[in-house]
Specification:
mainly alpha, 71% helix
Length: 89
């Protein structure tokens, strides 16, 4: 009997032992502001796909880009603060 590996992999890909760990869920939660800011930026770009961007569209894209960048900076700063041992010298 020949085993069909691709079907077996597809069936076992969603097994209970494949659930994300608590650490992975915490990492996703920490990154959620960045994810949401990126979604807003994508939404701003999607609006302009089928037409020429207006001044309002360009402002929306700039604001969304700044929010996405600020969210990334905040995430990096939180990670750097958490990894530094000790406190103020």
């Amino acid at each position: 009997m020949n085993h069909i590996v691709t079907v077996q992999d597809a069936v076992t890909a969603f097994a209970d032992f494949m659930e994300p760990t608590d650490a992975e869920l915490n990492a996703i939660e920490q990154e959620m502001p960045v994810i949401l800011a990126d979604v807003d930026l994508l939404d701003a770009h999607i609006v302009t796909l089928d037409r020429t961007p207006t001044e309002v569209d360009e402002r929306r894209i700039r604001r969304a880009r700044r929010r996405a960048l600020a969210a990334r900076v905040a995430l990096v700063n939180r990670a750097a603060d958490a990894s530094l041992p000790g406190g103020a010298a």
